[in-house]
Structure formats: structure tokens, C-alpha cells
Amino acid sequence: MSIQQGKTHTWTKSSYSTGNGACVEVKSPQVRSIAVRDSKEPQGPALSFRSAAWDAFVSRVSGGELGSGLD
Fold it and tell me: What are the DUF397 domain coordinates in residue numbering (predicted)?
């Protein structure tokens, strides 16, 4: 997914989303935070992460350090 921290004011669906409905959306209206929500529940809760924590998470996922949880 490609968002710009502090410049993405609308929800953006993950580029890794599939047709099975298991999708997340993210936005970053402020430089210091990333918001994440379930695309199936747009009126539901959203999680907020500090930018450094989000960057570390994405780096670990991209590097294959975190399993899929489906093992």
C-alpha cells in the first residue's frame, strides 16, 4: 500500500487485499500517526499507530519476519 504519512486524508485499501473480503484500509492525516480499520466495518473502530511503530511493523512484514498466522 502506498500512503504518504501526514498527507493521506482518505481511507486507502491495502494493495495486498484479496477478493475474499479480508481487507484493511489505512490513512494518515497527521505525520505522527497511521490509522487502520477493517474495510468491512467502515463505521467500526480504527486502530491508531505512531509512525515509527507502523514503519517497524511494515518493515518486519516485508522482510518476512512475521508469519501469516495461518500455520
Answer: 10-61
pLDDT tens, 18-68? 667 678 888 988 888 899 999 888 899 999 999 889 889 888 888 888 766
Q: pTM of this prediction?
A: 0.72
Distance CA 51, CA 15 (A): 19
CB-based burial of residue 33 (10 Å sphere; 0-12 exposed, 13-18 middle, 19+ buried)? Answer: middle
Name the strands in the sheet holding 8-13, side by side, starting at the edge strand that comes first in the sequence: 8-13, 24-28, 33-38, 46-50
pLDDT the model gives residue 35: 93
What 8-state DSSP symbol labels residue 29?
S
Residues in the chain: 71
